[in-house]
Amino acid sequence: MNTPQTTMEILQYTQALCESLEVDYRLYCTRSHRHCVERNQDAHYHNKCLQEIANGTYTFTTTFEIVEGRKYYKVVMLTSGNRSVHCFVNKTTGDVLKSASWNAPAKGVRYNLLNKESRENCYRYADWSGRYLYLR
């Protein structure tokens, strides 16, 4: 049985996962704007966006939040008012699972947040689009 301390750890690790996903999304936006500038595709607009990113005034359209359920923490991606489940984290075991639907995870554990090596790999490979959750 999990202790309250372990449950709190899993929540903290899940919050760190959300932060990793948001950092990855910000890097993705920056790369995308730079790519457009390099290709001279509406360079004025993309340079303006890059300047706002550098100033900290750019509004990123995608964020991640945790929704607590009975068995899982649901990591939800919010994009321009739309919500989708990014992944599930088992509240008692720390297992990270890809989502199959809004209410259910897919079968097969992808990472475990209580295992240090697995947790570090999860954070290292975490990407906002969820590629890291596919089994290889």
Q: Could you walk me through the main structural features you see in this protein, from its secondary elements to its overall organization?
A:
The chain is built from three helices and five strands, in the order ααβββββα. By secondary structure, the protein is of the alpha+beta class. It has one domain (4-133). It starts with a helix and ends in an 11-residue tail after the last helix.
Detail the topology: elements first, then pairings.
Blueprint: H1 4-38, H2 43-55, E1 62-68, E2 72-79, E3 82-90, E4 95-98, E5 111-112, H3 116-125
Antiparallel strand pairs: 1-2, 2-3, 3-4, 4-5
Concise synopsis of the structure shown:
This protein has 136 residues and is α+β, with helices and mostly antiparallel strands. Helix content is 43%, strand content 22%.
- Largest sheet features: 5 strands, antiparallel
Structural class: alpha+beta
Give the neighbour order of strands across the main sheet: 1-2-3-4-5
- Overall 3D form: elongated
Keywords:
single chain; 136 residues; alpha+beta; five-stranded antiparallel β-sheet; 3 helices; 43% helix; 22% strand; elongated
